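hey
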C-alpha cells in the first residue's frame, strides 16, 4: 500500500500508458518480476511475429490469405489479443493507482484507463472484423467450388499453356424474369507471359451449338429457345438451363446455367473453358462505388435511360457505379457491338486502377459488394496462383480483344466454323502452335464439328476484321 501512495495520479497514468506500449512495465515497477518478465517476453515474441510476417515466403502468405480456416483463426486471435491487451492495461492501472484519491481524480483516472483500453484494443477488433467479413465473402463467392482440383499442386498452370476464364455479365433487371447473360467474354491468358486475348461473343448470337447429351438431342441444329417462333439467342442459354433441369440432369439449381452455357461457349469457340466468373450487373454498380469510381475517357456523348434522360458527356471522367453501368450498357444511338467495345474498355480501366492503395481503404465495402455481386467456380486454393497470374498480366502482359461482330460474322446466321478458326488463330497463331494445344481443346472443337461442316463453304471475313486488337489502341486514354 505504501508503494501505491508514493505514486501520484500523473505518474500512475504514465506507468499504465507505458505498460500499454510494452507489457510488464507496471509489474516490474511494483516488484512483480516473474509476471513482468513473462509479459515482457510475450510482448517481444508477439512484436517479432508481427514484424516478420511481411518477410515470410510469398506463396505461403498468399495461401494463408485465402484460407477460410486461417481467416477464422485470425478473427479469433484478433478478439483474444484485444481482450488480453486491454486486460494488461487494466491490471497495470490496478497495480499502480494511487490510494486515497478523491472521487473526481478516481473518475478521471478510470476514464483515462478506459480510453487507453479502447485505444489498444481497437486495431485488433478492426482486424478481426475485417477478417470475419473477408472470410464470409470468400465462402460466399468461392464456397461451392471444387477444392480437389488444386490440392497438392505447387504450380497449377504446369502443362497448361493458356488458362481460359469465361467472364459473364448477368443482367437480372426488374423488368426481366431470371438472368440473361448479356456480356459473354472468354479471357484466354498465356500462363507464361501474361498476354491475354479477350474473345467476345455477342448476346444475340443465334443457333449456338449444344454439347452432347439431352441439350443436343433437343437442339440438334443449335439453340432455338422455347419454341420455333423465338430465335434463341446466346444470352438466353443460362436461364433456359435453370428453367429446364432436364437438359442438365443431376445439376442443382443455381448451377444449371453455367453447366449448359460453358460447354455451349466451348462448342462455339472451339476452346475449353477452365473456370467461369458471373457478375451481377446490378451489383456491379456497388462494386465500382466501393472502388471509389473508375476513370475512363469518353470520346463522344453517351445518352442513356428509357427516355434518354441521362447523359455522359465526352471527356475524361471518374464514373460512379451507376454511371459506369450505363457506360457499359447503353445502346442509345449505337448498337450491341459498340456496347461490347465499351465493356472491354471498362474492364481495362478497372484492371489498371485496382491498385492496393485504392483497394485497402475500402476493403470492407468491396468485400460486401463482391459478396452480393460475384459467383464463380474458382476454388479458394487457386486464388494465390490467380493473383500472381493477374499481377503478371497487369505488369507485363498485353491485352488484346477479338469481338465476333459484323463484318466478321452475322449474329443471326453465324458461321461457327469460321468463329472457331479465327479464335484458334488468335490464341495459337496457326496450325503449328495449335498442334500443341491440350486434349480438352481438341475435344471442345470436335463436339461442335457438325455445325462446322455445315458452314465450311462460306467465305471468310477479311484478315483485318479477325485480327485481335490491343485495348491500348482501341480504348481512348
Amino acid at each position: 500500500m505504501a508503494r501505491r501512495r508514493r505514486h501520484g495520479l500523473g505518474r500512475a497514468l504514465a506507468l499504465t500508458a507505458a505498460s500499454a506500449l510494452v507489457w510488464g512495465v507496471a509489474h516490474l515497477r511494483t516488484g512483480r518480476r516473474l509476471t513482468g518478465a513473462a509479459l515482457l517476453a510475450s510482448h517481444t515474441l508477439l512484436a517479432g511475429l508481427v514484424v516478420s510476417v511481411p518477410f515470410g515466403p510469398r506463396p505461403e502468405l498468399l495461401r494463408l490469405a485465402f484460407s477460410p480456416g486461417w481467416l477464422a483463426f485470425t478473427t479469433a486471435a484478433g478478439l483474444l489479443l484485444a481482450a488480453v491487451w486491454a486486460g494488461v492495461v487494466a491490471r497495470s492501472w490496478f497495480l499502480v493507482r494511487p490510494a486515497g484519491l478523491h472521487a473526481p481524480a478516481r473518475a478521471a483516472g478510470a476514464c483515462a484507463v478506459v480510453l487507453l483500453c479502447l485505444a489498444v484494443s481497437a486495431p485488433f477488433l478492426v482486424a478481426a472484423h475485417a477478417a470475419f467479413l473477408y472470410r464470409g465473402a470468400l465462402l460466399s463467392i468461392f464456397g461451392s467450388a471444387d477444392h480437389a482440383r488444386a490440392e497438392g499442386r505447387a504450380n497449377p498452370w504446369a502443362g497448361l499453356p493458356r488458362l481460359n476464364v469465361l467472364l459473364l455479365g448477368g443482367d437480372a433487371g426488374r423488368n426481366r424474369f431470371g438472368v440473361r447473360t448479356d456480356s459473354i467474354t472468354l479471357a484466354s491468358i498465356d500462363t507464361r507471359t501474361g498476354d491475354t486475348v479477350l474473345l467476345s461473343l455477342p448476346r444475340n448470337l443465334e443457333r449456338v451449338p449444344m454439347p452432347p447429351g439431352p441439350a443436343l438431342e433437343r437442339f440438334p441444329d443449335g439453340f432455338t429457345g422455347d419454341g420455333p417462333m423465338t430465335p434463341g439467342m446466346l444470352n438466353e442459354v443460362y436461364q433456359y438451363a435453370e428453367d429446364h433441369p432436364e437438359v442438365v440432369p443431376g445439376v442443382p439449381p443455381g448451377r444449371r446455367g453455367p453447366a449448359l452455357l460453358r460447354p455451349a461457349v466451348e462448342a462455339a469457340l472451339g476452346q475449353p473453358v477452365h473456370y467461369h466468373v458471373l457478375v451481377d450487373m446490378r451489383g456491379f454498380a456497388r462494386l465500382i462505388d466501393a472502388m471509389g469510381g473508375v476513370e475512363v475517357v469518353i470520346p463522344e456523348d453517351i445518352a442513356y435511360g428509357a427516355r434518354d434522360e441521362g447523359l455522359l458527356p465526352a471527356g475524361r471522367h471518374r464514373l460512379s457505379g451507376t454511371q459506369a453501368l450505363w457506360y457499359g450498357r447503353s445502346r442509345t444511338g449505337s448498337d450491341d457491338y459498340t456496347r461490347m467495345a465499351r465493356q472491354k474498355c471498362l474492364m481495362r480501366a478497372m484492371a489498371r486502377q485496382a491498385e492496393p492503395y485504392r483497394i485497402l481503404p475500402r476493403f470492407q465495402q468491396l468485400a460486401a459488394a463482391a459478396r452480393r455481386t460475384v459467383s464463380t467456380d474458382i476454388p479458394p486454393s487457386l486464388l494465390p496462383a490467380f493473383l500472381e497470374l493477374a499481377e503478371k498480366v497487369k505488369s507485363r502482359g498485353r491485352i488484346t480483344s477479338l469481338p465476333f461482330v459484323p463484318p466478321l460474322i452475322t449474329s443471326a446466321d453465324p458461321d461457327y466454323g469460321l468463329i472457331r478458326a479465327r479464335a484458334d488463330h488468335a490464341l495459337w497463331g496457326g496450325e503449328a502452335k495449335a498442334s500443341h494445344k491440350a486434349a480438352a481443346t481438341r475435344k471442345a472443337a470436335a463436339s461442335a464439328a457438325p455445325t462446322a461442316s455445315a458452314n465450311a463453304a462460306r467465305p471468310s471475313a477479311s484478315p483485318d476484321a479477325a485480327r485481335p486488337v490491343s485495348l491500348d489502341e482501341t480504348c481512348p486514354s
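Confidence is low (pLDDT under 50) at residues 1-6, 144-152, 431-463. Residues 152 and 381 are 10 Å apart (CA to CA).
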